[in-house]
Amino acid sequence: MQTLVDLLNKEIKAYEQYLELATRKKQSLIDNDFDQMEAVTIQEKVISTKILHLESERHELLRDEGFNPQITVTELIDKVPEEYRDVIKQTSEELKEVLVQCKKFNDRNMVLLRQSSTYINHMIKTFSQHMGGSPATYGKGMNKFESAKIADMQG
């Protein structure tokens, strides 16, 4: 059972790393630093892969010990030797706390992402309207200066 505790502690550390990245991602969202956001996203993928691997190891360990890999911690605590109950319970509480923190950060970051997306869409719409001018400037009535401005802006 000590191996299970070790795996849970590794998961806690991985989720704590994820929380650090969530903090950096939040700041990159606030700063509109898309390069930093992309770098953080890449690191999140690495940690997510690590977490999936640890969960797979935990399921395999539980199976090897004769337990259903989907067993809850409460059910497990009742079935493990008494000497491991407190440490498994404490470790699972730590894991639960870090997961709650991750969820809070993710929820806040999703709000920031939506706000950023709304702002960007608004700016694109405003820019597009400004660049397009009024309908009266289109067609044969456009003078050479207006045509050149449009051509210069397109690139």
Can you describe what's shown?
By secondary structure, the protein is an all-alpha fold.
Which features characterize this protein?
155 residues; mainly alpha; Methane Monooxygenase Hydroxylase, Chain G, domain 1; elongated; disordered C terminus
Secondary structure layout plus pairing:
Elements: H1 2-31, H2 34-64, H3 73-79, H4 82-132, H5 144-154
Helix pairs in contact: 1-2, 1-4, 3-4
Give a quick rundown of the structure.
The protein is mainly alpha-helical and 155 residues long. It has helices at 2-31, 34-64, 73-79, 82-132, 144-154.
Number of helices: 5
Q: CATH topology, what is it called?
A: Methane Monooxygenase Hydroxylase, Chain G, domain 1
The major β-sheet equals: none
Provide the succession of SSEs.
HHHHH
- Average pLDDT for all residues: 82
